[in-house]
Design a protein that fits this description.
Fructose-1,6-Bisphosphatase, Chain A, domain 1, 8-stranded mixed β-sheet, 8 helices, 31% helix, binds 2,5-anhydro-1,6-di-O-phosphono-D-glucitol, binds manganese (II) ion
Length: 306
């Protein structure tokens, strides 16, 4: 499967374990996509964050879990849908094994309305919970009209198209953007949460941004971040008055997205400091997330500082 990608880009994977993780994710993506039509209903369970789990969440979690745990060099696996980490057979950090954290299906409330969804992946070289500084790579799959995968590592950010393999063959990965950079001239924004629940200082910032940029909000972080990365701008799921840590989870959502946006030339903040510096207390911690062009994130931090 790596052949199609390497032929297009000429790029060799920097880290064979990271590459094997994203091969496994890419292989699962067409299967996840194909399984969604029959899984648009609640599974009847709640996850560690107290949210209702959809049948699609469970399917994606099981398929990706099995595939990622099987990768040599992955020592630990943890998912938004699982209470605790799964030991994948290796001490993380010391002997070079990685810990992989995933949001198997991001934006799964969009299953009912048939809007975009994603899968988020963070590859850490420290036991979880860890800070975003311990990420060695991160990426996401976007199940849009086209299945794309964005992968970031030390060397930069790539966008690939993922297509199902012929006759039982594994999926193919084709690089369509070898060096994804956030455009300098921002055009879109998307902010989560109900406006009445935003703190006043965030509302003041939002009022300014609304007069400058176009609203693009689809209710799946991956879809909304992908628009922001494509056109430039700012995405946020801010602190809310009754949930000061916002909604998104540090290990599975905020850290990987912050890593990708920063590698693409942008910035990521919890409102006061870089997301990648946020010290976790638990696996399922939430954190306010603001990502986008550096100037817009700097202005956000100044607004929240006052
Ligand atoms: P998940 O489906 O993994 O729980 O994530 C949902 C998140 C994220 O995708 C999105 O940015 C946010 O929830 C949307 O929340 P609202 O529906 O409150 O806008
Ligand atoms: Mn999510
Ligand atoms: Mn999810």
């Amino acid at each position: 499967m790596g052949d199609a990608r390497d032929a297009e880009s000429g790029a060799e994977p920097d880290d064979p374990v990271v590459d094997a993780v994203f091969d496994a994710v890419a292989a699962a993506a067409p299967e996840i996509r194909a399984a969604l039509p029959g899984r648009r209903v609640k599974s009847g369970t709640e996850n560690a964050s107290g949210e209702s789990v959809m049948a699609g969440d469970l399917y994606a979690d099981e398929l990706l879990g099995e595939a990622i745990i099987a990768v040599d060099g992955v020592g630990s696996f943890v998912s938004e849908e699982r209470e605790t980490a799964v030991d994948a057979g290796g001490a993380v950090g010391s002997d070079g094994a990685y810990a992989v954290a995933i949001d198997p299906l991001d934006g799964s409330s969009n299953l009912r309305s048939n809007n975009a969804m994603g899968t988020v992946v963070g590859v850490y070289d420290a036991p979880l919970p860890a800070t975003g500084r311990d990420l060695v790579a991160a990426g996401y799959v976007l199940y849009g009209p086209i299945t794309t995968m964005v992968v970031a590592d030390e060397s930069g950010v790539r966008e690939e198209v993922v297509e199902p393999g012929d006759d039982g063959e594994r999926a193919t990965r084709t690089v369509v953007e070898a060096d994804l950079r956030l455009p300098d001239d921002p055009t879109v924004y998307g902010f989560g949460g109900r406006v009445p629940d935003w703190p006043d200082d965030f509302t003041a910032y939002a009022r300014e941004i609304e007069s400058e940029l176009k609203l693009r909000y689809g209710g799946a972080m991956v879809g909304d971040v992908n628009q922001m990365l494509t056109y430039g701008g700012v995405f946020a799921y801010p602190a809310l008055t009754d949930s000061p840590d916002g909604k998104l989870r540090l290990q599975f959502e905020a850290n990987p997205i912050a890593y990708i946006v920063e590698r693409a030339g942008g910035a990521a903040s919890d409102g006061a400091s870089d997301i990648l510096d946020v010290e976790p207390k638990g696996l399922h911690d939430r954190v306010p997330l603001h990502v986008g062009n550096e100037t817009l994130i700097k202005r956000l931090e100044e607004s929240l500082d006052g």
